[in-house]
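Structure request: SDR family oxidoreductase, Rhodopseudomonas palustris.
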Amino acid sequence: MGLLDGKVALITGAGGGLGEAYAKLFAREGAAVVVNDLGGPRDGSGSDAGMAQQVVDAIKAAGGRAVANTADISTMAGGQSVFDDAIKHFGRADILVNNAGILLDQTFAKASEASWDKVMKVHLKGTFCVTQPVFKWMKDNGGGVIVNTSSTSGLLGNFGQSNYGAAKGGIWGLSNVLAIEGRKYNIRIWTLAPGALTRMTEDLPRYRENPGAALTPEGIAPAVLYMVSSLSGDQTGKVLGVSGPRGVREMKLMEMDGWKPPHNGWSAEDIVSHAGEIFFSEEAIKAAGRPR
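Returned structure:
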């Protein structure tokens, strides 16, 4: 018995790296998998339809069920086609992992409109395009699980990744809304912030300098299996960070109780006077488990 017996999973960007690891693990656990990947290099230029098919062939050779989809998920038609293939070939859409992405890193001062738009289109719009038809089906068919891929670049920030960080931060915001709207339909929403050594990240400074500390895609995949399986129960609206240096941990926005200004007026100087009630101290941040 597998953890995903009878389930159908749709995974974008599954022709290599993290998505490939998810697809193969899900298939071993009993799921039928729609393997989506436009293919091509990490900057989003070109395409290679063979990448998705190679993963499908490997899954089938191991006794699993899978079908390739090579649509561009940054378009409404492409997102719809991923869902349509799930229904056409397997009759259901129980799990969606939005994993597809590109990198076009530039410092903000050097950022171009073209690179900004392209990264936003693939990451943020792509997540919308694939999720909407799947969400609608889940809403009418008893629910499901959606995992949206964010990043510490979007949650905490990272030098040279203003376009990527903005897109990944937007995905986190989208997940928060979907968790609220999906709760009554039994649609569970997770956000993942992975850190792994893949072709997308192999030349980033933190991996070049310390490659042994990075997780492989196979080291991230068990966390995603946990999210989409019954092991995670009815949890929704949560963010898991998974990386070599930090391991597996929940990440969340913290909020102070705050200072309540009087109704009869207050000044900017009052914020200085009540700073201890408004701002987190370094001690409070450390006590919450995330020293920086």
